[in-house]
């Protein structure tokens, strides 16, 4: 009798587990989950699947093989905060009348706020860097104790430095915990790491994987040699091999963490109905000393910042391709084509919000956002949106299709044909005066729409727009 009761109990437990599993799948069947993994200062060429000759990134590469990899995806800024503003609000960072770092987003809606209205649980783990108001606390006298931009849960993890664990491991552990707790409802989670932002650690257990690495500098192009390898030798008096080993070790630890998160999605039966997006906030930073601080307190670890823009000119803080072109991998099994590479569609971080709203059936007012719904492109379409992309720091820059125009009042404006010259080495402004004129007018018209810029844009100085 006890044996029969025990078998009956086991049967009921198994049935309950099966029903729970079915319920979990049914709860999210119509609304896909979203996992947004954002690296920090990771170069366009820093992953094996993007062409790095030495990187070990098998899990991120696997993500690309089971999804689609985009080669012309652009950040909305050249530093951390402006790029994140574009992702979350689909608004150019210079469109704000106030500095986001001091005043927050105010009444601008974020993707998390919109998804919450559609029944999503929302979480943010890792790096914040999108203004004050965290946890509902008044952290700046310039703003009210405002919302957390639609995040149900926030945990801001610092970069871990014990030499044994990956420095983004706490961020991924908290994200996995969030996913486990919300697996029976649709969820959105930001997994925002610190890798490969300064400081890239030395002598971690991960570096042992690369101790035999000898760098063939000819594989990386002239920009990397001039701006990274020579700095490593001449400024820091360190071996390029050692610095590269430490950098790749840091990236490998990120890949291992990504692997654990993807494995958890598999174990929970969530992979099929989860959109996983992997990107970086902007291009790789230089490995020069910090000009505002002494070379103490670990500043030498800047030497390890060997991020590679894959031969593209520029990096973080610069609006050349190496600073604004970033990796984008999207996986959604059965929806996003597996093993595909989109080399033609010019996409932007501004498109993140409207695209996810479309894919999740979330209502949004298109007039309030600058990005485009490119869900058809994510799902395999080859459309190249016919629009301008703009950046603005000291001087504005515009991109239309394959043409990139830099307003440069110091040395003369620059025009590049990115199809023929993706590394922006040859200024062709003199050979294409009509194209240059059209690009310049479009950039100036946009610049005038920015807060406080209407009276700033003047006619270019004599000689500007004619090249050198």
Task: Describe the model.
With 468 residues, this protein is an alpha/beta fold. It has two domains: 31-385, Alkaline Phosphatase, subunit A (3-Layer(aba) Sandwich), CATH 3.40.720.10; 390-448, Arylsulfatase, C-terminal domain. The chain has twelve helices and 13 strands. The strands form two sheets. Strands 1, 2, 3, 4, 5, 6, 7, 8 and 9 form a nine-stranded mixed beta sheet that branches. A four-stranded antiparallel beta sheet has the order 10-11-12-13, covered by helices on one side. A hairpin with a 2-residue loop joins strand 11 and strand 12 (403-406). The termini are far apart.
Q: Count of helical segments? A: 12
Q: What is the end-to-end distance?
A: 95 Å
How much helical structure, as a percent, in the residues?
25-40%
Task: Note the main sheet.
Answer: 9 strands, mixed
Mean pLDDT: 87
Structural class: alpha/beta
C-alpha-based Rg, rounded: 23 Å
Short description:
It is built from twelve helices and 13 strands.
SSE diagram, text form:
Layout: H1 2-28, E1 33-39, H2 58-65, E2 68-74, H3 80-89, H4 100-103, H5 111-116, E3 121-126, E4 153-155, H6 169-181, E5 187-192, H7 221-234, H8 240-267, E6 274-280, H9 321-324, E7 325-331, E8 340-342, E9 347-348, H10 352-360, H11 375-378, E10 388-392, E11 396-400, E12 403-406, E13 414-417, H12 433-448
Helix pairs in contact: 6-8
């Amino acid at each position: 009798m006890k044996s029969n009761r025990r078998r009956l109990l086991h049967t009921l437990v198994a049935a309950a587990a099966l029903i729970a599993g079915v319920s979990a799948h049914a709860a999210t069947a119509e609304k896909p989950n979203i996992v947004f993994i954002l690296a920090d200062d990771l170069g366009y060429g820093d992953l094996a699947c993007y062409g790095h000759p030495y990187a070990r990134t098998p899990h991120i590469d696997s993500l690309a093989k089971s999804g689609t990899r985009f080669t012309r995806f652009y950040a909305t800024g050249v530093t951390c905060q402006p790029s994140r503003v574009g992702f979350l609000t689909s608004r150019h960072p210079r469109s704000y009348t106030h500095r986001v770092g001091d005043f927050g987003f105010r009444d601008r809606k974020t993707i998390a706020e919109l998804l919450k209205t559609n029944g999503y649980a929302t979480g943010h783990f890792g790096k914040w860097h999108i203004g004050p108001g965290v946890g509902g606390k008044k952290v700046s006298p310039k703003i009210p104790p405002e919302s957390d931009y639609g995040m149900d849960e926030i945990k801001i993890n610092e970069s871990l430095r014990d030499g044994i664990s990956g420095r983004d491991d706490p961020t991924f552990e908290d994200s996995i915990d969030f996913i486990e707790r919300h697996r029976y409802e649709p969820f959105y989670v930001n997994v925002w790491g610190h890798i490969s932002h300064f400081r890239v650690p030395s002598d971690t257990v991960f570096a042992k994987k690369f101790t035999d690495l000898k760098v063939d500098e000819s594989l990386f192009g002239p920009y990397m040699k001039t701006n990274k390898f020579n700095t490593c030798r001449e400024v820091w008096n360190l071996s390029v091999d050692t610095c590269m080993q430490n950098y790749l070790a840091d990236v490998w630890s990120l890949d291992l963490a990504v692997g654990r998160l993807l494995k958890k999605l598999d174990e929970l039966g969530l992979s099929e109905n989860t959109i996983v997006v992997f990107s970086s906030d902007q291009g790789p930073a230089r490995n020069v000393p910090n000009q505002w601080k002494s070379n103490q307190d670990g500043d030498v670890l800047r030497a390890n910042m060997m991020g590679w823009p894959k031969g593209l000119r520029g990096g973080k803080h610069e609006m050349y391709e190496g600073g604004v072109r970033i990796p984008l991998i999207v996986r959604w099994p059965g929806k996003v084509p597996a093993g595909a590479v989109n080399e033609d569609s010019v996409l932007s971080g501004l498109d993140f919000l409207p695209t996810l709203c479309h894919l999740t059936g979330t209502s949004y007012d298109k007039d309030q956002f600058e990005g485009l719904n490119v869900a058809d492109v994510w799902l395999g379409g080859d459309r190249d949106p016919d629009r301008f992309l703009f950046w603005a720091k000291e001087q504005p820059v515009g991109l239309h299709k394959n043409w990139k125009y830099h307003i440069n009042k110091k040395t003369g404006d620059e025009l590049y044909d990115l199809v023929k010259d993706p590394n922006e080495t040859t200024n062709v402004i003199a050979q294409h005066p009509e194209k240059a004129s059209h690009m310049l007018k479009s950039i100036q018209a946009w610049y005038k729409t920015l807060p406080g810029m209407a009276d700033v844009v003047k006619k270019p100085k004599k000689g500007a727009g004619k090249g050198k």
